[in-house]
Amino acid sequence: MHEMSIAVDMMQQLERIAAEHGVSRVERIELEVGVLRLVVPEALRDAFSAVAAGTVAEGAELDMVETPARARCGACGEEYPVQVEEYLCPRCGQAAGQILAGNDIIIRSLVCDSDGGGAAHEDQGG
Ligand SMILES: [Zn+2]
What we know:
Helix content is 25%, strand content 35%. By secondary structure, it is an alpha+beta fold.
């Protein structure tokens, strides 16, 4: 289950952000999850809650938003949306040269309590 390695990676990012911003507790994490990573949300929640136990992010809520995938054709430069099992360029039929989006797990924003009265990692979208 690769969700565990994703959770470990997230936790490393969170600890760095928490250290930079004097965060004492993370309450909520907004996460962009690329569809190509094939993450099972429940599995990621379970993995993260295990990894986050005893850290600033213990008990934090995960808010996952799926990011659609995009690719750029290496042959003709066309940019197009890709499906999980369909990587071919619709214009020239070549395999995708470069995945532009949909293959990343990105921490978009955090809701935190800070020691120093500092702001959260990013502005909250709503
Ligand atoms: Zn093409």
